Amino acid sequence: MGExxxxxxxAARWGDAADIAVVExxxxxxxxxxxxxxxxVVTADVPAADGAVVAVKPDDVEAACRAVAAAGxxxxxSIAAGVPLAALEAWLGDGVRVVRAMPNTPALVGxxxxxxxxxxxxxxxxxxxxxxxLSAVGTVVRVPEHxxxxxxxxxxxxxxxxxxxxxxxxxxxxxxxxxxxxxxxxVVQTLLGSARLLAESGQGPEALRAAVTSPxxxxxxxxxxxxxxxxxxxFLAAVEAATQxxxxxxxxxx
Length: 254
Description:
The chain is α/β, with parallel strands linked by helices. Helix content is 54%, strand content 12%. It is built from eleven helices and seven strands. A five-stranded mixed beta sheet has the order 3-4-5-6-7, sandwiched between helices. Strand 1, helix 2 and strand 2 form a beta-alpha-beta unit. Helix 3 crosses helix 4 and helix 6 crosses helix 11. It starts with a helix and ends with a helix.
């Protein structure tokens, strides 16, 4: 996710490459990142900065926060899944203000979705800074912290659900007799076009679905097959399971 955010910020011209520093402990990975993102600073140690983004796995968040605090950074934005503000503030210490956010990987192409919540010491300017950074790569909403686990289960994990749907539709097209390349091209454009129609038409998904569904027609038959196999319920269960997993990641251990 951190790599996607860096790529998205550079593509959106959020700032000069030299304005961005990436901290990576593994030397081979540092070389890889420096080659992919020419001009950015890639280092093994946290440099002094006006703000830092904590974009590591949940098990590594404590060490990353302590390194940020030791560098004297006054403001941190965490995009680590499931790690609550209380833990972040404890690890960062009283001198560091913190914002917690959950973005998703479409930030890589400037089409991300993110939600954020501020810590106890975060100011309106801090929230605006975090929102400005994340909005360079997509849409940002503000929510109370207790809803961030649901955000993780929905939009944080959501791209994987959509990619699974894409895989299934491509395979279905092949099963129906289409060449795989043809099926893939049609599915990708169908997903892209449907998302744009939903975003730009001003109509909700129910109305758009109804407009495509003629009584007794092909779409009605296909939708009935999906309902018979509880696809809607499966999506509800997937989001709930991912939400619960996010809560578990943030629960105190021991």
